[in-house]
Write a structure and sequence with these properties.
alpha+beta; GroEL; 3-stranded antiparallel beta sheet; GROEL, domain 1; 508 residues; binds magnesium ion; binds adenosine-5'-diphosphate; elongated
Length: 508
């Protein structure tokens, strides 16, 4: 189910995304804050499995508490967890199934799994398809390694319409209008100048002075000079065959006039992140000095067109030759829906990227956690001393994932877990079995198409153990006199003072 978060101003967020919930929750407890950190790390590293990481960390700590009550020292618990993690990692790598990086069907299943329960079933398939198409389009091989960078998928949100109207654009969508009414609104076979330079005469930079008693022709000459610079820019564009201009800076009235007269479409104040994507999509180069611009700097797009989206206008740059940057324009009934759709789509894009970069997958639904519990228990028998308890505790802790999935479906977890343990131990393909989230019953997750990237599971386990370790190493919480940020601020000030020869106050 979704959660509704309400802040002190009454603003609401509706989400099912673990990282977002934790991020927005008002958490007071210091250990709680540490757990929020893990969810952030998990999100940054692999983009999914945040709830898993936090739930695992919580379960590890719960198990650890029982051991501490039995007077087992925290360092013993920590080293047992660490050994168990190594065994778990090795086993998951062993059972992971290799996939072809362009295996669209599997990638789609992975994307759908990441969006399970977060978005309506009909839209889920469609979004999964968009995520796979987008990621495969931007993926590339660099020095023998595959890279699928989420930064190259631009997400543009505009509420209105329905989620089904969400579209993939093989190019970039700029949330700006064409700057002047007399300019063309549609340019085919666009030769594009991408500028990080203003098309205006920047007054303060002109080192000139006009006195009132200068002869009038001199003033005229000055104004002409201004006009000439702009005109020379436009002439340059014309000579290079440019018919579309995008700049991060401004375009003043006079420049607009000349551009329009030359039949050039122009867009001003484009976001830097957007123009960087344009560079990649159109194969052009960002130009800072218009005088030095050459034909090689120009980008290309089959079509540049201003279109109406909802009640606003946007410029679409499409049909790029081999776009290494694409856009997804998310539509949806209202703003919060669009925001949540973006989070879901980002999860889907992340897991697809994970698999393209590291092409191994596992069945989901708690199946890998059951495998981990099994092998870690077997390993525990070989561990001597009290550490054995810690290794066993790890095995018990990871079962929290299938347990939670069963409970969420309203089933009694004890029975289901017993059945699941038995299958994992006795059946040859037992490793595929987990919990069907709809029924809460034991099922072959592989045939249910519930599939996850190996990296998400590995990272979640690792993050959880790291967090639990960090907490276990703490034996006392001491109120610090100053909060960290204040301290840094002060140190900075002191540093500056001593640099500037001020008196040092380090003894105070
Ligand atoms: N259809 C399904 N049946 C059973 N389990 C599923 C299904 N879809 C996803 N899961 C499982 O749900 C868990 C992920 O839940 P989610 O709420 O996305 O948390 P996280 O933030 O950890 O990704 C994973 O263990 C995944 O395998
Ligand atoms: Mg998820």
């Amino acid at each position: 189910m979704d959660k509704m978060l309400i802040d002190s101003l009454g603003d609401i967020t509706i989400t099912n995304d673990g990282a977002t919930i934790l991020d927005e929750m008002d958490i007071q407890h210091p250990i709680g804050k540490l757990l929020v950190e893990i969810s952030k790390t998990q999100d940054d590293e692999v983009g999914d499995g945040t709830t898993t990481a936090v739930i695992l960390a919580g379960a590890l700590l719960e198990e650890a508490e029982k051991l501490l009550d039995k007077n087992i020292h925290p360092t013993v618990v920590v080293s047992g967890f660490k050994k168990a993690l190594d065994v778990a990692t090795e086993h998951l790598k062993k059972i992971a199934v290799p996939v072809k990086r362009d295996d669209v069907a599997t990638l789609k299943k992975v994307a759908s799994t990441a969006m399970h329960g977060k978005i309506s079933e009909t839209v889920k398939d469609y979004f999964a398809e968009l995520a796979v198409k987008a990621m495969l389009q931007v993926a590339e091989e660099r020095n023998g390694e595959w890279v699928a960078d989420l930064d190259n998928v631009q997400i543009v949100k505009k509420h209105g319409g329905a989620l089904e109207d969400t579209q993939l654009v093989y190019g970039i969508v700029i949330d700006k209008e064409v700057v002047h009414a007399a300019m063309p609104k549609r340019v085919v076979n666009a030769k594009i100048a991408l500028l990080d330079a203003p098309l205006e005469v920047e007054k303060p930079e002109i080192d000139a002075e006009i006195r009132i008693n200068d002869p009038p022709n001199q003033i005229r000459a000055f104004l002409d000079e201004e006009e000439n610079i702009l005109k020379s820019y436009v002439d340059k564009f014309k000579a290079l065959g440019v018919n579309a201009v995008f700049t991060t800076k401004g375009i003043d009235d006079m420049a607009q006039y000349y551009l329009a007269k030359a039949g050039i479409l122009a867009v001003r104040r484009v976001k830097r992140s957007d123009i960087e994507k344009l560079v990649r999509a159109t194969g052009g180069r960002l130009v800072t000095n218009i005088e030095d611009m050459t034909e090689a700097d120009l980008g290309f797009a089959g079509l540049v067109e201003e279109r109406r989206v909802g009640d606003e206008k946007m410029v679409f740059v499409e049909q790029c030759k081999n776009p290494k940057a694409v856009s997804i324009l998310i539509r949806g009934g209202f703003e919060r829906l669009v925001d949540e759709a973006e989070r879901n789509l980002t999860d889907a894009l992340s897991v697809v990227s994970d698999v393209i970069e590291e092409p191994y997958v596992l069945p989901g639904g708690g199946a890998p956690e059951m495998e981990v519990a099994k092998v870690v228990r077997q390993f525990a028998a070989k561990v001597s001393g009290r550490e054995q308890y810690a290794v066993e505790a790890f095995a018990n802790a990871v079962e929290v994932i299938p347990k939670t999935l069963a409970e969420n479906a309203g089933l009694d977890a004890v029975d289901v877990l017993t059945e699941l343990r038995h299958i994992h131990e006795s059946k040859e393909d037992g490793w595929k079995y987990g919990i069907n989230a709809f029924t809460g019953k034991v099922a072959d997750m592989w045939s249910l198409d519930v599939i996850e990237p190996l990296t998400v599971k590995l990272q979640a386990l690792k993050a959880a153990v790291e967090a639990a370790t960090m907490v276990l190493r703490i034996d006392e919480i001491i109120a610090a006199s100053k909060i960290e940020s204040e301290k840094k601020e002060e140190e900075k000030k002191e540093g500056e003072e001593s640099k500037s020869g001020g008196s040092s106050s380090s003894f105070e």
